[in-house]
Amino acid sequence: MFLFCKQAGYDTMLRTLGGTLVEFIGNLDALHSYLALSYQEMNAPSFRVETAEDGTMLLHYYSDRKGLHHIVPGIIEAVAKDFFDIKVNMTVLSQSEEDERTGKKEHVVFRFTVVSNVLYMIHMSALPPGFYVIFSLQEEYFRRMRDKRMSLPVQKNGWDLIREVVLSEKGSFQGTFTPCYPDKLWIEEKAFCNAFPFHIVFDRNLKVRQTGVNLQKFIPGLLTEDATMDQYFAIIHPQVTFTIESIRKFINSQFILKSYKDTSSPMKLRGQMLWMDSFDCMLYLCSPKLRSLQELQDVGLHLADLAQHDVTRDLVLLNQQRLAEMELTNQLERKKEELRILSRYLEAEKQKTEMLLYAMLPRHIANQLKDGQSVEAGEFEICTILFSDVVTFTNICAACEPIHIVHMLNSMYSKFDRLTNIHDIYKVETIGDAYMVVGGVPVPTPTHANRVANFALGMRIAAREVTNPVTGKPIQIRVGLHTGPVLAGVVGQKMPRYCLFGDTVNTASRMESHGLPDYIHLSTTTYNALKDGGFHIQERGQIEVKGKGHMTTYFLLGNPLVSDDAIMGQNQGLKRHKEIVLYCGTFILLFINLSHKQKHQIFNNGHIFNPLNAKFVM
Fold first, then answer.
1. Which end of the chain has fewer beta carbons closer than 10 Å to its terminal beta carbon, N or C?
2. Which stretches are annotated as coiled coil (predicted)?
């Protein structure tokens, strides 16, 4: 577990907890309090080191989770070896359960024995009582001692030399500093209360004995004669009962107290507890727990109420700056999200615009216009053009409401447009009831005539599915085809169109106008392009064509090589499925109308219904 913590990036933080193992353990609770800010569900144990009456060093371990104390020795030994270059032996002295506010806590007491690598056992007076160092011979350690001796500026006697070398080694001996205390406290009571405006001193019975000036200001009842701590505060962290005994168990923890009096915005205090044996009292040296200027205002405080040496002032200001930066970051993120949504919306609108543009112009022509390029007219040596119109369209328009005409043309043109995608030909334009397409333009293809011919056959089939609003019968169309060269280009700037020019266009229009209802009229050049393609073509003979004189023309009757479903682009399997569903529905209706006796005969005599023939068979 210790190795995992190091690999997770906590190595530097752990090394800074203390210069000795005792200091390290004493600051673990503070580290856990810090980590709890990021990990709300964290349920950390608590550690406390004390000296027993016989001088033995004891480690007290408290935890809400039972059975985990077995891993403590391994972790402490790994820390001692890795950070302080010492070996620690730990044994369990006692194990019990104690009642606290959150329930029963497991309390395990371990005894320390620190083992180092020298020949003798020495009791160092500067070490805390109970720390005995056991030395054993090791060549590597003597080498380090020799190197240390050579580095010393002055030659010393044996014990002084050993002491200086050992004290310079990395290990528990780094904590041998002995502080010097004054004979009397050179600070006035008034100065102390002003310097620490949020401190509290209370006795074993929790009675308040002394407070800082600002606590008197914001919680004036604290200095009344019978005021006790538990009347004004609740312990938020650690979650222990408000007694001196419980507090002393977790003396290394950071204590957070919340005031009772102001329920709208209670003041929270954060600090450390210090036990004073001579006064039999506890000193709570604290400051307000604040994270932002808003919280400072909510509890009615100002920055001037915080002592100048109190880092809470800097933390509030730094955190306020961080909050402002976070708000700015959030605003940027919201703007970015709005831009992403707007970008997706614009992309969708762009696709709609491009689809509309591609419906009006060939794709490569439209792309050239979008790029600001000029589109030059191009010659196509060979292509096939088709014109069609509705028979008696003028009479239909005279007898119907305009909306009926629109619905009829929309139904017909929607079917024709689908066929252009199936046969990969280009729709040039529609004018009234006239429909014009071309094969081999704008992308040349050797099968232009075959594609347009199959499309014409599909048009005739599709037209039979459109109803004449006057007669209620299927409409009839005339279709004319001609093959020849054309000139193609974009005409106009407002609503530009891709148009075809040349005699081929005029001849194709004449083929349509001189055709017959429900027939596909072919010119000689189109016939020559289709005659070897397996189409069923009938010669019409010579006819007088306006502006062309006598021409030999033909009728396209069908294409035996391709089924009507293939021409219409219909799925054979789907059509068959629909037929079976229709026949099965018919069987169900017939079966429902049978008498009980007939139904009984069907199942008993083995009659089977054939949905494809819609009759009963044996």
1. C
2. 318-352
